[in-house]
Amino acid sequence: MASKAPNRPLSPHLMHVRWPINMMVSIIHRATGSGMATVGTALLVWWLAALAAGKESYAYFMSWFTGDWAPLGYVIGVGLTLSLFQHMASGVRHFVMDVGANYELKGNRTTAWLTFAFSLTATVLFWAYVTMGK
Amino acid sequence: MGNGTNLGRVRGLGSANEGAHHWWQQRVTAAANLFLMLWFLLAIAQAPGYDFDSIRLWLSSAWVAIPLLLLIASVFYHFRLGLQVVIEDYQHGENRVALMLLLNFFTVAAAGVAIFSILKIAFTGVPK
């Protein structure tokens, strides 16, 4: 093992390279997936376990996301649904690329933008329905 | 080295022929997740209420409990495969082994709790 780091130029740092939209979709696909797998799983399992345990446990669970804590509930709820819709859209885009299609630069970039358009629209519609639909 | 020569294959160093297994399983569960999560979102959005009794009653129906159990199986397997790739990309050596074990324990334990909870609610309904 070399004891001293060689004095060579560093590889291009993240701050110095462009951030094309296709790259953003790819990294956000991983970020949203990892986020849902950890935070989303913990909350889903907690919700189900509290619901199975009884009224007090469920009330305790809900107390973290309603009333005084409602802002936290909305941040996590909107964050998770936005992540889900974004991961879903970029996942469907992945399916198209898996069969070898949509590698043309223009179409690839357009569909990358479309995943964001879908996730934002779907999240707004979902929460509008849940909060105002009844 | 087993580079595909006959000798390499005899020594058991050739391809394990399972290179696409992880990739394919991730795609199959992704397709299942697409349908199951769309159902889940619609079902949650249309649930009559989010208080204890309403949700217990909602979940005690087989039409909700069974898709939710399938969702747990498919989604949890999918995220286990996905996080495995993340660990393989960023962690090396002993850390990778430790995190991979942790990932497996986390997935199975979380699935165990979720499945037990769904079954308990499905079989006992709304408590008096």
From TrEMBL, chain A:
Its cofactor is heme. Pfam families: Sdh_cyt. The chain crosses the membrane at residues 69-89, 110-130. It is a multi-pass membrane protein. InterPro entries: SQR/QFR_C/D (IPR034804), Succ_DH_cyt_bsu_CS (IPR018495), Succ_DH_cytb556 (IPR014314), SuccDH_FuR_B_TM-su (IPR000701). Keywords: Heme, Iron, Membrane, Metal-binding, Transmembrane, Transmembrane helix. It is found in: Membrane. CDD domains: SQR_TypeC_SdhC. The keyword Metal-binding applies. Belongs to the cytochrome b560 family. Part of an enzyme complex containing four subunits: a flavoprotein, an iron-sulfur protein, plus two membrane-anchoring proteins, SdhC and SdhD. The complex can form homotrimers. NCBIfam families: succ_dehyd_cytB (TIGR02970). Membrane-anchoring subunit of succinate dehydrogenase (SDH). This is Succinate dehydrogenase cytochrome b556 subunit. It comes from Sphingomonas hylomeconis. The lineage of its organism: Bacteria, Pseudomonadati, Pseudomonadota, Alphaproteobacteria, Sphingomonadales.
TrEMBL record, chain B:
Its cofactor is heme. Pfam families: Sdh_cyt. Membrane-anchoring subunit of succinate dehydrogenase (SDH). Pathway: Carbohydrate metabolism; tricarboxylic acid cycle. InterPro entries: SQR/QFR_C/D, Succ_DH_anchor, SuccDH_FuR_B_TM-su. Part of an enzyme complex containing four subunits: a flavoprotein, an iron-sulfur protein, plus two membrane-anchoring proteins, SdhC and SdhD. The chain crosses the membrane at residues 28-45, 57-77, 97-119. It is found in: Membrane. Keywords: Electron transport, Heme, Iron, Membrane, Metal-binding, Transmembrane, Transmembrane helix, Transport, Tricarboxylic acid cycle. This is Succinate dehydrogenase hydrophobic membrane anchor subunit. It is a multi-pass membrane protein. The gene is sdhD.
